[in-house]
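Project standup — Tuesday

K.O.: blocked on the structure for the chain from last sprint. Re-posting the sequence here as requested.
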Amino acid sequence: MKRNSFIILTSLFLFLSAGCEKTERNNTEGCVQVKVLDAVCNTAVLQILDPDYYHLGENGYQKDGITYDHVFGTVFPCKLPNNNLSVRPNQGVADKPFYVKIIDQPEPSDPNCGTCLAVVSNAPSKWLHVSVSQQCNTN
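H.V.: unblocked you, prediction finished:
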């Protein structure tokens, strides 16, 4: 009797727990508002500004004695839409928010584009591929 009860309870537990899978929303369709915290060459650390997508980043990134949450690293393509200066912190507009789409694969690289291989020091361990698009600004 104890064995049957154990088997029934175990089966019930497994059955119920199978329906409780945690699903994480991948943002392949929507736009995420971000800003650049740090960048070198084509790599950057972005902070997610949209609370609906905080789960895509990680917490605890340190820069200049300040701790930032909801961040991830990325590599920008050589050519950005309309020469989007928001993603180029050395142009003095790094704090200006802009929109990206999280994509599964990096955008194809331009074979005529030379980039350096430097990476942001102390970059977060979470890296995501992004696409910068002006269309996001109107959604």
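K.O.: great, moving the ticket to review. The chain has one domain: 32-138. The longest helix spans residues 2-18.
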